Amino acid sequence: MNGSGTIFSNLQIAKFSNCLNKYYYENTNNYSTKIFNGNDPSDRNNLPPFYDRGGTNYFSSQSERELIMKDGKIIGSELIGQKLDSSIYFWSRPSAIDYNPIPSGASNFGPTSKALQKQVADRRVLFASKNSITDTLAIPKEMIFASASGLDPHISPKAALMQVDRIVKARNFNADKKQKLIKCIKDITEAPQFLCLGEERINVLVLNLELNKL
């Protein structure tokens, strides 16, 4: 289960592994989290043997459906989160590994860790100040805690709505565009898996791509 309450099946894990393979050979020498600045696909034969080629061989077609393309280039994956902290975009949740997929992971800080407490407090203050939030306790947990993988691509609808005013101001949106943005959040909200597992969630990369269309 990821930080948004999503249950990953074996097939999704295989897809995820294949996406990591693609990210590895496309970004090993120049790792980038610029979601709108994709890279040309590289030679699959350069894939290190350590990484499971089975995912590429057997689940290639399925995993490639999860890749997001723009102008013929891969700009991201629906399964792998990216670092987003610009004022004109929706932010992703924090990541202990700065969204570097090689390797994924968490901070491993325990609940009594002073370092973790400071991180959470700092993230709470930053999110509140940038989004003009007065009730800091109302901030959704995914915006102040990193996920176990550090690559969670989702946030909650509440976390997205809390960022709307900042984005509207940064992009000089009028009232009509603001309403369209709010409707967009509602339209692309994903339901809990099987309608009962996890929580409603929004893919941040997909949301920001829709935002660019407004």
Question: What brief labels describe this structure?
Answer:
214 residues; mainly alpha
If you had to describe this structure to a student in words, what would you say it looks like?
The structure is a single chain. With 214 residues, this protein is mainly alpha-helical. The protein has 7 helices and 4 strands. The protein has 2 domains: 10-77, no CATH class; 114-211, no CATH class. It has a two-stranded antiparallel ribbon with strand order 1-2. It has a two-stranded antiparallel ribbon with strand order 3-4. Strand 1 and strand 2 form a beta hairpin. The two termini are 33 Å apart. Mean pLDDT is 78; it is low at 1-10, 27-44 and 46-56.
**Can you tell me the number of structural domains?**
2
Radius of gyration: 18 Å
| Largest sheet composition | 2 strands, antiparallel
Distance between the termini: 33 Å
Order of neighbouring strands in the sheet with most strands? 1-2
Tell how many strands the DSSP assignment holds.
Answer: 4
Give the SSE order as H and E letters: HHEEHEHHHEH
Q: State mean pLDDT (0 to 100 scale).
A: 78
Shape: globular
Task: Determine the number of helices (DSSP H or I, runs of at least 4 residues).
Answer: 7
Strand content: 5-15%
Structural category: mainly alpha
Fraction in helix = 25-40%
Unreliable sequence segments = 1-10, 27-44, 46-56
